[in-house]
Amino acid sequence: MEASNVCVWGGDLFDFCWSRIGGGEVSRKAAIDWLEAWRAEFPDKTFVYLTGNHDAQAAFRESLEQWARPHTQPEDLSPSDTHSDDSDSTGSAQHVRLPIRPGSVHVGLDAIRLADTLMVHGDVIEGGRHSVGLDQYRNRWAHEPATSPANLQNGLYDAAVTARLHLAAAGVAHRRRSTCLRLLHWARQQPDWMHQDIGQVVFGHTHRCLGGVHVAGIDFYNAGAAVKHVKFEPVVLPVSVSV
């Protein structure tokens, strides 16, 4: 963090379905407090939080917007730079050209581009790559636990992780080359400025760590996941952008 000017959180940092500290407002506040601690420690850096399927809950997205509002200037999101299209070809992603201002915070985005680097959570390839399908996919994680944090669901999830079943599922669902090509196909359905001349794609979602896999002339990176038995390495790349 100390060596970077821009920190992009790629989504899925939190999952309110499986919270161990309590559902609803308690968990959302803990999440925002954690983010704010980083922002307060590095007030001159730019922070971006991309939307992931595990943290796409409407109430949390509202909390994110409230947290970011004091650090976002109105001109940062001009109407001419924002694209939202409900057609099947583009999906429901929000695409914004962001001015990188020291101390700014940007949330509510599915993807951003910095120089020749495209950053996206990765779940945009789910749901048939159209808006309705993606929304339905994300809604699977919108609910909160109805019982105490130490509930049966958490126990079953822990058992699955211990047995490393999550690794097998990720390997089957997200083959490396296939996933990279699906992301590239999605990107090419977006406005030209988002995908033309990109050289790198950084994404999450698949829980599979990639350290620069070269596919179709582009290097793909994935940090993995901070889950037991899963390799996790934050992606740090030199990217030159104008401020």
UniProtKB/TrEMBL annotation:
Residues 68-97 are annotated as: Disordered. This is Calcineurin-like phosphoesterase domain-containing protein.
